[in-house]
Write a structure and sequence with these properties.
This protein folds into 2 domains: 29-114, Leucine Dehydrogenase, chain A, domain 1 (Rossmann fold, 3-Layer(aba) Sandwich); 140-268, Rossmann fold (3-Layer(aba) Sandwich). It is α/β, with parallel strands linked by helices. The strands form 3 sheets. A 6-stranded parallel β-sheet has the order 1-11-8-7-5-6. It is globular and about 50 Å long. The chain has helices at residues 8-28, 44-59, 75-86, 106-112, 124-131, 140-151, 171-180, 195-199, 249-252, 266-285; strands at residues 4-5, 34-40, 63-69, 93-96, 160-164, 184-188, 204-207, 225-228, 232-233, 243-244, 258-259. The protein is built from 10 helices and 11 strands. 40% of the residues lie in helices and 15% in strands. Helix 1 packs parallel to helix 10, helix 2 (44-59) crosses helix 10 and helix 6 (140-151) crosses helix 10 (266-285). Bound molecules: NADP nicotinamide-adenine-dinucleotide phosphate (NAP). The site of NADP nicotinamide-adenine-dinucleotide phosphate has 26 residues, from helix 10.
């Protein structure tokens, strides 16, 4: 049987449409949700992500702006700007695009963002709140994945969930969300012995590895829900230049129960949940 495809693009669009009324209600009360994205350096991929974030906000009536610094800017300049934005009544979300140049102390920069404006959810205090099962902001990519489970009517309780990848951005918060949802969670990394042993018993498999077509059909359990977080640009072959995920979609399609495509899967959900977090921040500020 062919797997059901979880269409992230359609779900993202549905959610974004539903956000418009919330944005307008806030704007009518003088609290138009506002997001500032800070970009340091000229990384082309980061520039695309930042543009999409800003445009995603503007398209649903939010305020958004980007602040761009050259790659050799002094860290203190960025910290001062964050302090200014923390105090700005019109800004509800502040996001620093990662990765930062080498001379930056990433942790220090992320910790400088006010916890109630940390819409990426990367501040240590917000990570702690998530770990305790009482999140203030859920990191956008795993948050998007949870919405996809919801849309696909996936009951996570008691399920064997395997996450490949343990990054602070995806793997770890994903694992915490699955734990909070009552799944039995295994987190794999590059040192995991016999990865296939784990993936083959997963009812829910989340791949956040950063390696094109890494998960193949023989690695998954029949009927599994397979979530592909990866975004990789193919370097060579006939599809050079095209995007592909961490999952070999073609070989998993026949075995999986549900699967997300790349592009059009988790990617569009990430920015959507950034909008959701910023609206949520503005609603809290407005006292609902
Ligand atoms: P990352 O920081 O590079 O982490 C990759 C993880 O994969 C690491 O924990 C690494 O293990 C693990 N890994 C690498 N090789 C492995 C192997 N052979 N077996 C098992 N585990 C292995 O990457 P990330 O930031 O989490 O991103 C992962 C992917 O998601 C990338 O393709 C990225 O572009 C994509 N992404 C997509 C979105 C979206 O919006 N859809 C958002 C963020 C990221 P170690 O820790 O042992 O090194």
């Amino acid at each position: 049987m062919t797997a059901q495809i979880i269409d992230g693009k359609a779900l993202a669009e549905e959610l974004r449409q539903s956000f418009k009324a919330r944005v307008e209600a806030l704007a009518a009360k003088g609290h138009r949700p506002g997001l500032v994205v800070i970009l340091v350096g000229e990384d082309p991929a980061s520039e695309v992500y930042v543009r999409n974030k800003v445009n995603g906000c503007l398209a649903i009536g939010m305020h958004s702006e980007k602040i761009v610094y050259s790659k050799d800017v002094d860290q203190q300049v960025v910290l001062d700007k964050i302090a200014e934005l923390n105090a700005d009544e019109n800004i509800h979300g502040i996001l620093v695009q990662l990765p930062l140049p080498r001379h930056f102390d990433e942790e220090k920069v992320l910790e400088a963002i006010a916890v109630d404006k940390d819409v990426d959810g990367f501040h240590a205090e917000n990570v702690g709140a998530l770990a305790q099962g009482n999140p203030r902001f859920i990191p956008c990519t795993p948050y998007g994945v949870m919405k996809m489970f919801e849309k696909g009517n996936v009951d996570l309780t008691g399920q064997e969930a395997v996450v490949i990848g343990r990054s602070n951005i995806v793997g770890k918060p994903m694992a915490l969300l699955l734990i909070n949802a009552g799944a039995t969670v295994t987190v794999c990394n590059s040192r995991t012995r016999d990865l296939k042993f784990h993936t083959r018993r997963a009812d829910i498999l989340v791949a956040a590895v950063g390696k094109p077509k890494f998960v193949t059909g023989d690695m998954i359990k029949p009927g599994a829900v397979v979530i592909d977080v990866g975004i990789n640009r193919l370097q060579d072959g006939p599809d050079a230049g095209k995007l592909c995920g961490d999952v070999d979609f073609a070989s998993c399609l026949e075995t999986a129960g549900q699967i997300t495509p790349v592009p059009g899967g988790v990617g569009p959900m990430t920015i959507t949940m950034l909008l959701a977090n910023t609206i949520e921040a503005a609603e809290r500020k407005a006292g609902r």
